[in-house]
Write a structure and sequence with these properties.
Length: 137
Amino acid sequence: MKEIKKRSGCPVSSSLDLWGDKWSLLIIRDLMYAKSCTYSDFLKSEEKIATNILASRLETLDETGIISKSEHPDSKSKVLYKLTQKGIDLLPVLMEIYLWGEKYFQLSEQHKAFLEEVKKDKEGFIKATRAKLLSSI
């Protein structure tokens, strides 16, 4: 696993060194809901990540053990990316970011509906989603 140069011994700072930029969190978000993605799947997201940034973030997330890559079953020229246990453990963090964002930003109807489901039983949602993600690794 790639060692990231840490700015300090603070766990918040050290965590942000791994996944604290917006693109890494969006890649993690996409993998939480799609379970696995190809490079081109990430390029299709509405945020429009540049190819050089995508390649760099995928490499860092792979080298630090947050995601893994494997051969695509249908194409030797494609790679499938999935969350590892380390990446799946970010699920509660991502849910809290969603809930914080709901409080302060205008959301799409899709995101409003998603968060209504989450808020019905947040712990149950996290547990069920974690189990689904773990079954795919």
